[in-house]
Amino acid sequence: MVQLNLPAFDHQLKQADGKRWIFDILRRKYLVLTPEEWVRQHFVHYIINELQYPKALIKVEGGLSYNKLSKRSDIVVFNRDGKPWMVIECKAPDIPINDSTVQQASVYNATLRANFLVVTNGLRHFLFRTDWNSNTTRVLDAMPEYI
Fold first, then answer.
1. Minimal CA–CA distance to 34: which of 93, 87, 76?
2. I need a labelling partner for 75 at 20 to 30 A (CA). Which of 18, 102, 121, 128 fits?
3. Which positions fall inside the Type I restriction enzyme R protein N-terminal domain (predicted)?
């Protein structure tokens, strides 16, 4: 797998059924190691180990509905009241982050209404803060502290 612009972590890999698998600490099972999963697992470990986001308030690949379509959010971090606080959309490293990928993540967030949105391919990370009262969004320079 490609070297990402995220801290390394002690990952558990295995080979089975002709595929490589990586252990997901949140779902407590091995998942097929795709380039997108490589990014997702790095980002999960980054927010837990480096930023101290509470592991119990993070959900990976949760379902949501938008315009009667079923969608899946990559990572959602909840606040202490159980409401979505941050949505993180992960792409494979070879997928460029552009207006289209940010728009896709924004559509997911329009349903969840989290204050923070992150779009990453593991190499580049784009961070946004939305104020739902004034319907404004601004770009952030760094990941927010979990409060």
1. 93
2. 18
3. 35-144
* Residue 76 and residue 118 in contact, taking contact as beta carbons nearer than 8 Å: no
d(CA 73, CA 61): 5
Q: Give the pairing type, strands 116-120 and 84-90.
A: parallel
Residue 53 exposed, middle or buried by CB count within 10 Å (0-12, 13-18, 19+)? buried
Structure tokens at 112: 């969840």
DSSP readout, 23-39? EETTTTEEEE--HHHHH
**What are 117-141's pLDDT values in tens digits?**
999 999 999 999 999 999 999 999 9
pLDDT band at 28 (very low <50, low <70, confident <90, very high): very high
Q: Give me the pLDDT at residue 61, please.
A: 73
Q: Would you give the distance in Å from CA 49 to the centre of its chain?
A: 15
pLDDT of residue 65: 46
pLDDT band at 72 (very low <50, low <70, confident <90, very high): low
Beta 19-24 vs 29-32: how paired, if at all? antiparallel
Question: What is the bridge-based pairing of β-strands 136-140 and 19-24?
Answer: unpaired
Contact 44, 27 (CB under 8 A): no
